[in-house]
Amino acid sequence: MTGRLQDRVVLITGSGGDIAKATALTLAREGARIVGTDIDAALAEATTTAVRNAGGEAASIALDLSDDAGAQEFSRFALERYGRIDAIVNNAKAARAGSGSPPRPTPGASPSTAT
Ligand SMILES: NC(=O)c1ccc[n+]([C@@H]2O[C@H](COP(=O)([O-])OP(=O)(O)OC[C@H]3O[C@@H](n4cnc5c(N)ncnc54)[C@H](O)[C@@H]3O)[C@@H](O)[C@H]2O)c1
What we know:
The chain is an alpha/beta fold. It has one domain: Rossmann fold (3-Layer(aba) Sandwich). It is built from 3 helices and 4 strands. Strands 3-2-1-4 form a 4-stranded parallel β-sheet, sandwiched between helices. α2 links the parallel β2 and β3. The longest helix has 15 residues. It starts with 8 loop residues before the first strand and ends in a 25-residue tail after the last strand. The mean pLDDT is about 90. Nicotinamide-adenine-dinucleotide binds next to α1. InterPro entries: NAD(P)-bd_dom_sf, SDR_fam. Belongs to the short-chain dehydrogenases/reductases (SDR) family. Keywords: Oxidoreductase. This is SDR family NAD(P)-dependent oxidoreductase.
């Protein structure tokens, strides 16, 4: 670890996906603070927990980014928590019709803000 991203705040959309989790862990190893969001609260939380277990700093919030309100809430969450946004990894993807892997809804999702 070089610490070249020390205290940089990196947003990751679709943070519950495997690629997103690997990205979060890699960036956190370099010192970045990870702020994730996913429509699936449990997946978002799993990535946050993985980063924390590896000694990094992360927070997440479950949101649907398919409308502007979700995106605005995501940036608001990051700014309230860390006061800055340095980069965003736009990883979220919605499954195409007929692909066999529809987006997973998250009823009653709540933010995870513990450090
Ligand atoms: N897997 C591949 O081989 C591959 C190849 C090329 C590009 N990519 C791109 O890499 C990215 C990640 O791919 P992956 O295979 O890890 O995907 P994935 O499906 O595992 O992860 C995507 C995440 O986005 C979340 N998501 C879906 N709709 C959302 C919404 N409306 N709001 C918030 N979150 C939402 C899903 O819950 C999921 O956790 C995608 O953008 C994909 O297009 C993937």
